[in-house]
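Hi U.,

Before I forget, here's the chain from the pilot set. I'm dumping it here mostly so it's searchable later in email.
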Amino acid sequence: MGLIHHYTSINTLSLILRHKTIRFNRLDRVDDVSEAKYYGNYSLGKFLFVSCWTDSDTESIPLWHMYTDRMRGVRITLDSDWMYYRPLVPNPKYGFIQSGEVMAPIPFDKLINDDYLVLPNIFQKEKVLRKVRYVDDPSIFLNNVVDLKTLPDGKAEMKLRDVNDYATYKEKIWSFQEEVRFTLFILPAIPIPPGGFNNDQYLSEFPTHVMNSIVNGVGPKLNYFDMEIDSAAIEKVTVTLGPLCDAGDEVIVDSLLAKYASGGTVQKSKLTGTIRSAIK
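Structure:
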């Protein structure tokens, strides 16, 4: 996709550079309150985690205003392929058998553990980053993505349709954001037994636990998920100062890059000098 941009505060920039991570926020905690309500009777917003960007190279006054401190924040520009993909190394204690080399941007113990499971779309880059589609009514596309049926033997069966489309629809009123977003679907897990994943009781209980969690709207015990940035990507970061940043803000940003991303670049907003003050 090329370059993408994230408008945020100088404080958040400092945390991103220091920890070299990007934070994915839970969908039911983002600014568009309605987003988590498009999934019919199910609270899937508790299972979806997103990192929101724009692929518009033109600076946006609304985004400066909404996501920075009175236009004294920054716009972070990274290559869209910023995730640190490396060989997945399974924990030997789980008896996991892997055929060939698998590349993943999340270490094995953060991919699946006793508390949660990140669904496998993370292995395919093209399915993690998606352009947001702006429509009149997102619920038309998302209302029936959970298919719960009762089988003849009385047992329940659940299917999740079009998982890669979750969190990619927004109402047209938000189209000014020209948003692209990275999306994770994270399910609550159960403790992995000493023998690993091949334990029959575990294989039987885990799907039931997931189904009950979705039905009852009980997501993983996570408010956010942090993803590591590839060191090569962070060294090519460009930080654009907000239109109303002053000399002190520039000194702070320069110092952050010198310490954490010496190959990065700082530049002034093209809107500098054209805006008198932030809109109240």
